[in-house]
Each structure stands twice: as C-alpha cells, then as structure tokens.
Amino acid sequence: MPNELENRLGRALGSIPLTGQSRERARQAALDALTPAPPSRRPVAVKVLVASVGAACLITAGVALAASGGVEFHVGRPAPSSTQLQPKPAIASSPLPPGSEAFIVEGGGRVWSAGAHSLRPIAGRLSAIAVSPGALYELEAKAHLLRAVAYRSGRVAFTHRVRGRVIAASWSPLPIRIAFLEQTRSGYVMHDMWGTGSHDRRGPGLAAPVAPSWRWDSLAVAFVRANGRVSILSPTSGAVETLPRVCSIRSAQAIAYSPSNGLLAIAGDRWLAIVDTTGSRPLHCIRRAAGTPSLAWLGGRRLAIGAGNHLENLSVAWSGVRSTARTVSGVITTLAPAPHGHRIAVAIDRPQGTRVMLATGEGLVRSRPLFTLDGVHGLAEIQWR
Amino acid sequence: MDPLPSDAVLVGEARNGSRNAAGALFDRHWPGAWRLAVAVTGRRDMADDVVQDAFERAFAALTRFDASRPFAPWLHRIVVNRSLDLLRSERRLVGLDATGPMIAPDEGRATAGDRALLEAVARLNPQRRVVVVLRYGIGYSPAAIAALLELPVGTVHSRLARALEDLREPTAGGFDAERA
Asked: Does residue A92 carry a pLDDT above 80?
C-alpha cells in the first residue's frame, strides 16, 4: 500500500507541465524518420572491389603527389546565390609555389585556374566542385549534372544526373563515396553515392544547406538536418544517428570531422561544440567569435575556426581546449587545411577583393599572402590538393 | 463513434508507411515520453532533444519492433537510455553555459512541498531517479520496470527503497511544515 511519500511523488511528478518547446519539430523529424532509405542490396564482393579500387587510387595518388612535390588547392563558391556577372578576377599577386595551381569559382559560377603566372578559364559555370582525395578527379556540378573528370587526362569518368541542383559535394577520404547536397523544390536533400557515380541514395528527410563532412575512415558522413541538428549517416548500413543538441546550438552552421579520429566540430550561432562521435561523447563547448563560421582541422587534435575577423586555433585534449586567437584585416570567408596539417589557407574578404593567405605555425600566427582576387567577394570554399 | 485504434494497429499502419498513423502514435505518446525525459534529465531543453531523438529512433526502427509487444515501454526504454547517455555526456562538459532549470512543477497546481520533493528527485543519482520516475511518474510496476530496464526485479526494489530513503530525509521538513 503506498505511503504518503509515494502518493506525493505521484502527484509531484504528475504536476510537471507539458511545455516542450519543440513538439512540432520533433513530430516532423519523427515522421521523416519513418521512411528510411531502402536497405542496401549491394553485394559484398562489389563493396570489397570498390574499396580495393579506392584504396589503390589513394595509394597511387599519394605516390603521384609525393613525386610532384607541388602544392595545389582549389578555391570555390559552391552555391552562388546570384547570377549577376561579376568582374573578371585578376590576380594581384601570385606567389604560388612553382608547379602549383589553384582553381577558382567566382561570381556566377565561372571557374578559373590560377598558377604562378597565369589565370585562365577552365570550365563553364558550375554550381559546385569537389576534388577527390589525391587530386585524381574533379567532381563538377553543373546544375542537374554531376561529372567526374580525371585531373591529368581530362577524361570524363562518369556523369550523373539529378532532378534538382547540386550545391555542394564532398568525396570521402577513401575515394569510394561521394556525398552531395541537392536543392529541390521542397528543400535540400543529402545524397550518398558510390565514387563511381552509381548507387545514388537519398539521405533521410530534408537537410540544411551545410556541406557534409566525412569521417576519416569513410564509414560515416555527418550532415545537418533541416531542423538544424546534426545527423550521422552510415553509408554501408544506411543507419542514421541524430546527435543530441549540445552547447546551446539550436542550428548547426558548419560541421567538420577530424581527419584522424571521431571528433566532430559543430559550429552554431555563438558556440562551437567538439563532440566525440565514437565513444561516450565527451564534449567541449567554446564561445566563438560572431560571424559566419568556417572550420578546418589541422591534424586530429588541432582545429581552426574563422569567423568575422577572428582566426582561432584550438588544441583539443580530453581534459579541455587550449585556444589562441588572432585577428585579420577583413572578413574570413573560408578556411582550408593542407592535407597533412601544419598550414592553412585563409580567404579574407576585403573591400577590393578576396585575399588568400597561408597561415602556419603553432597558433597560426605566421602568415603570408598567396594572392588577391580583385573584385571577387564571398568565396565559400578552398580545397588543398 | 469509432473507438480509437490501438497502438498495435497504429504501429502496423505506420510500418506500412502511414504518416497519419505514425502521427497519431506520436501524439498519443509524446506527453508521457516528454514528462519521463524531463523528470530523468531534470532539464526541459534536454528533454526536447531526448524525446525528438527517441521518436526518430523508434520510428526508424519500427520495422524491427516486435508488434506483439506494447509500444510505450519500448519507447520509454529508448527515452531512458538516451537521457542517461546525455547526462553522462554532459558531466564531461567543459565551459558549458549554465545548466537550465531543474524539474519545475506546474506553479498553479504544485505546493511548496511538491517543489521541494521534485528538487530532491532531481538530486538522486540517475539510476535511482529513473526507477522513481518510472514507478511513480509513469506508473509502471516494479516487474515492468525490471523488464524495461533489463534488470532483476530485486534490483529495482532495492533502488526504489534506497531512493525513498534518500527522499525522506530532505523532504521531512516539507512534510512537517505542510502538516503543521
């Protein structure tokens, strides 16, 4: 027979009012989860074959890069919001290392190749571009068409057509998968497909226009749902895990997986969260500077975040985060880490155009200008190759 | 007037892709799941996340759900597990902004003693808090709690007993004050 304390417990617990702030959002998310993607029927043998080919490509690419010794990177604007033509970018200075090359997508999607002494158009208008690991292929999105082009030979490896408009794409570190965002009438949709351009599969529900990020082992890709939460898709099983909201972040604005472990950086409006997605999920929450965030890992435990005129370098440990910050003249629009860390390209929007700097050293305190794109504003992506 | 369809019927239709049935299932079970989450986590913002996540997981796994079993305990088990996962994660936070309010009862209905009691529940360790909430907040029997948490019934009884012991001490003043 319940005693008085038990009766009071029942009454007190029953008096908790229903004031959930997100019932409708939760309802929509739950209904979206009701129709998961059809289960994968890919034969194991094919998976092994593709993985082997991907590994071979990576090794070949590594050998090729090591042989070339060049530094290459790509500057892109994957989702041009305006079709208005902008003035042709001009390289004000171009101290790129000899033999290196940069690709630039500006304004309405025009693409340019910048070398140490030249600037030339290399393609028509693109809505997104992504470079495969090892720089073997460029993935070009031209509205409804995705096309992979071998970098050296120019051979078209595959073409793939989608209904909507591709606004961002990302190769997995082992180049066997590609994640891309499609803009449709009802919203953005995340896709995952094989690196061969086949087996295109839609992600669950709708996504936010935030570039997806691959985990180092290519077995998971993080993306932002339309409700601002971060989900992790396992391309092999099709399973989707939605992370709980952390650090008061209601809507993720940028995400980036560490290149060598399961740490995932999530930038919200004023907070940056670092989440361990593999184990018991220890977290760090850091206040960040105001402005549109851009994230870049330099190795497994160093993270750079650019926002406004602040460039912050974070050393991440289990026990905490050590931070150093510097300011730049202008607004940071994007960051791009070198493949093996240690240095980072920083695009800075200034009144006369976009300046791309190379920041190095502990705390990213040393920097030198790479080049300036006169009359070009709002670059959204840089990729080292 | 047609009787409301049972959970089993709704689950069956939802598994066939009926969003209406899934929506009805959500509407029916959201209040209990949210109260459970807010009582276990002690925070409304966290409860919002837990419940959304629990429903997403439940609906995504609906095809694997044993339809011969009741839906609510399965959902509640997900809610409890997600709540405990989140609490474990939060304990490791560095530099997190201030924790939100702990369990707050309805101001209009609750007495000062109720509020003190809920504060005491929020201070229980998570294992004991879970069994207290499931027993007295949701109304499960100890045997049902044991099945839900995959624990021996004896463990549930002992956790309940110890939790009640913990609660008696800090709330004694409240009882006395109210009786007086």
From this structure: no
Cβ-Cβ contacts under 8 Å, B118 against chain A: 12-13, 16
- Domain B105-180, what fold? Arc Repressor Mutant, subunit A (1.10.10)
Say whether A282 and B92 touch across the interface (CB within 8 A): yes
More confident residue, A64 or A263: A263
Query: A156-190 pLDDT, tens per residue?
Result: 889 999 989 898 899 998 888 999 999 998 899 99
Q: Is B95 left (phi over 0), alpha (psi -120 to 50) or beta?
A: left
Q: Which of A13, A35, A280, A281 to probe by mutation at the B interface, max B CB count within 10 Å? A: A13
A228 vs B contacts (CB less than 8 Å): none
Instruction: Give the chain B residue nearest A317 (alpha carbons).
Output: B94
A178 Cβ neighbours under 8 A, 6+ residues apart? A130, A139, A169, A170, A171, A172, A192, A193, A194, A195, A197
Local structure of A165: helix, strand or coil: strand
**CB atoms A285 and B95 under 8 Å:** yes
d(CA A223, CA A207) in angstroms, rounded, equals 7
* Alpha-carbon distances of B73 from A53, B7, B137, rounded to whole Å: 47, 12, 14
Percent of chain B residues past pLDDT 70, beyond the cut: 78
Q: CATH 1.10.10.10: which residues of chain B?
A: 105-180
Q: How far is CA B79 from each of CA A92, A244, B48, B52, rounded to the nearest angstrom?
A: 58, 12, 11, 9
- Among B23, B62, B85, beta carbon nearest to A27: B23
Instruction: Say which amino acid occupies A130.
Output: A
Instruction: Tell me the ipTM for this assembly.
Output: 0.80
> Hey, what domains does chain A have and what are their CATH numbers?
42-295 (2.130.10.10)
Mark yes or no for CB contact B59/A31 under 8 Å. yes
Taking CB atoms and an 8 Å cutoff, what residues of chain A touch B36? none
Residue-wise pLDDT tens digits, B166-176: 888 654 444 33
CB A149 within 8 A of CB A99: no
CB contact under 8 A, B45 and A245: yes
What is the C-alpha separation between A366 and A3, in angstroms, rounded?
Answer: 70
Phi, psi dihedral angles at A120 (to 5 degrees): -140, 145
The CATH fold of domain B1-101: Rna Polymerase Sigma Factor; Chain: A (1.10.1740)
Chain A residues in contact with B117 by the CB 8 A cut-off are 8-9, 12
Nearest to A280 among B60, B88, B95 (CB): B88
Residues of chain B with C-beta less than 8 angstroms from the C-beta of A13: 35, 39, 118, 121, 133, 136-137
User: Which residues does chain B have within 8 Å of residue A286's beta carbon, measured at their own beta carbons?
Assistant: 95
How many CB atoms sit inside 10 A of residue B92's CB? Answer: 15
Which residues in chain B are classed under CATH 1.10.1740.10?
Answer: 1-101
A117 pLDDT higher than 80: no
